[in-house]
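Tokens in:
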């Protein structure tokens, strides 16, 4: 009996070692390939065009997003394209499904694309097949199978919807009841999304079309790429809102989301206010934040006090300690779970999207963020950030130092795994 137990333990250790070596090798190879690509492109990320939008709104939390999204889907006449990393199999999601089925039966082209890992429970429940039978076109991005095993880390973390080429939603909110504060463990769910009308809608449609093609081998109806009338404003129109859509993924020569953050942080002169649920940056981003603080920029960070990912929580202790040692205040959000991916830089731009400030988002995930250049929205974002600070407490070096020994050990182990967390 003891021999069998020892054999099982040995096999488990060997299996863990093989998996760990594979992921380390994959990470080193990915970094090497990225550097190789950058050398071939003179290490300069491509410039992103400015879009002119006539309407762009910040949507606070799920209670502002989901009623608006459902209403827009109800009003659709041509197509509805929805992409989300996580779609739950719960009451809120089924309300969305019912609306999508209704529109499909009316002849609207309705498509739902989910990630194979993030929405694993939904995929295994058989819901996508039932939706297909009722006219909704469903697809799974990188489903868990032997075919995709070598790239299992490459997940589609985007959350966006495009309706009729006229309006779009993009941001940090997935689809499910927990995102309207109904999770019994995490409780209040703090998040941010965007509503857009204008040229950026076309960019988001192109992102959806590319991901749909990657998942199915088919392109959505070409009518979806038609120019939208709301894009006819000029950049000097006082009502125009300028924005850049940042679509990043492991296939890119540069991690565009990371390059965008680095660019605005390195140019900042007044403030860099950041919010993220997961803070496990690489050394380059960490150095940029510390450098900004040293040149007199007001750098602040909000992260959640409670977490839904224990290993990520422990892996964040080391970079948070470095920020504190540099004099950068770190605030722990106490009202519930802080999931907003959010930045305010000087009087403009602000950044809202799906990217976390971690290496997974920068190297392995397909992400979509918006850089928005508008002082009115920047002021609104600053008010939201200051409102969030009212339900935060400040993290101190003494608190980090007084952690139990086992937490410090867990932090060191988690740091080794930080590229994949």
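Residues out:
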């Amino acid at each position: 009996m003891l021999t069998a137990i020892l054999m099982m333990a040995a096999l488990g250790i060997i299996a863990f070692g093989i998996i760990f070596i594979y992921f380390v090798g994959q990470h080193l190879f990915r970094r090497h390939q990225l550097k190789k690509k950058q050398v071939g492109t003179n290490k300069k990320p491509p410039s992103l065009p400015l879009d002119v939008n006539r309407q762009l709104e910040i949507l606070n939390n799920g209670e502002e997003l989901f009623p608006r999204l459902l209403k827009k889907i109800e009003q659709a006449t041509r197509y509805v394209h929805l992409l989300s990393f996580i779609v739950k199999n719960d009451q809120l999601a089924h309300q969305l499904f019912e609306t999508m089925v209704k529109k499909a039966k009316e002849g609207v082209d309705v498509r739902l694309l989910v990630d194979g890992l993030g929405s694993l429970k939904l995929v295994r429940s058989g819901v996508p097949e039932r939706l297909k039978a009722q006219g909704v076109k469903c697809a799974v991005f990188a489903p868990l199978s032997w075919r995709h095993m070598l790239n299992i880390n490459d997940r589609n973390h985007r959350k966006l919807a495009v309706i009729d080429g006229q309006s779009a939603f993009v941001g940090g909110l997935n689809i499910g009841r927990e995102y309207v504060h109904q999770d019994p463990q995490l409780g209040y769910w703090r998040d941010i999304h965007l509503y857009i009308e204008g040229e950026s809608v076309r960019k988001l449609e192109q992102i959806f079309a590319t991901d749909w093609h990657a998942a199915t081998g088919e392109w959505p109806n070409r009518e979806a790429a038609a120019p939208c009338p709301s894009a006819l404003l000029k950049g000097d129109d006082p009502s125009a809102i300028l924005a850049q859509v940042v679509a990043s993924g492991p296939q890119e020569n540069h991690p565009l989301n990371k390059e965008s953050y680095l660019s605005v942080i390195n140019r900042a002169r007044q403030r860099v206010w950041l919010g993220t649920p997961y803070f496990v940056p690489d050394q380059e981003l960490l150095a940029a934040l510390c450098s900004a603080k040293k040149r007199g920029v007001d750098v602040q960070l909000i992260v959640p006090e409670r977490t839904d990912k224990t290993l990520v929580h422990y892996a964040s202790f080391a970079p948070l300690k470095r920020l504190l040692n540099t004099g950068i205040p770190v605030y722990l959000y106490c009202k519930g779970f802080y999931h907003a991916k959010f930045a305010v830089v000087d009087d403009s731009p602000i950044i809202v999207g799906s990217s976390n400030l971690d290496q997974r988002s920068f190297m392995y995930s397909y992400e979509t963020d918006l850089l928005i250049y508008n002082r009115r929205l920047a002021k609104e974002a600053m008010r939201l950030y200051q409102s969030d600070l009212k339900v935060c407490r400040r993290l101190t070096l003494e608190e980090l130092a007084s952690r139990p020994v086992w937490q410090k050990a867990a932090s060191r182990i988690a740091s080794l795994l930080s590229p994949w967390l």
